[in-house]
Amino acid sequence: MQNLPEFELRDGTEKDAQGVLKKIAVAKIKGADNVVTEKPGKEYMEGHADYRPFLPSLQITGGGTKVLGSTGGGGTQPSTDPAQAHINKTYAPPPKASGAQA
């Protein structure tokens, strides 16, 4: 798929049945002047008509194969918990230092 932003997996605030934190995917979208906006990955993918046809094939169903060393937290949905509000944020890179010598 072309033009996909960088995605990052983070620990969520919800735990699974074994008490392990579920993972959430965060899309890091670069805009003008290298300003990065972060959105929950599911929200980003569902918001683009180009990617919607692929969503059913990306769904993870129960069962699966356990990989040694894995905690099995994949396939979780982003939380709507207010503690996750930091995911919908925009930030800019730090300004370049003026007059710095190389």
What this model shows, in words?
11% of the residues are buried. The chain starts with 5 loop residues before the first strand and ends in an 11-residue tail after the last strand. The chain contains two helices and four strands. The chain has helices at residues 41-46, 55-58; strands at residues 6-15, 21-30, 36-40, 89-91. Helix content is 10%, strand content 27%. It has a domain at 1-60 and 86-92. Strands 1-2-3-4 form a four-stranded antiparallel beta sheet. Strand 2 and strand 3 form a beta hairpin. It is mostly beta strands and 102 residues long. The mean pLDDT is 74.
Oligomer: single chain
- Gyration radius, in Å: 17 Å
Sheet/helix structural class: mainly beta
The proportion of residues forming helix, as a percent range, comes to under 10%
Number of strands: 4
Report the mean per-residue pLDDT as an integer.
74
Uncertain runs = none
Biggest sheet architecture: 4 strands, antiparallel
In whole angstroms, the N-to-C terminal distance is 39 Å
Q: Judging from the principal axes of the Cα atoms, what is the shape?
A: extended
SSE order in H/E notation?
EEEHHE
The helix tally amounts to: 2
Order of strands, main sheet, comes to 1-2-3-4
Task: Report strand %.
Answer: 25-35%
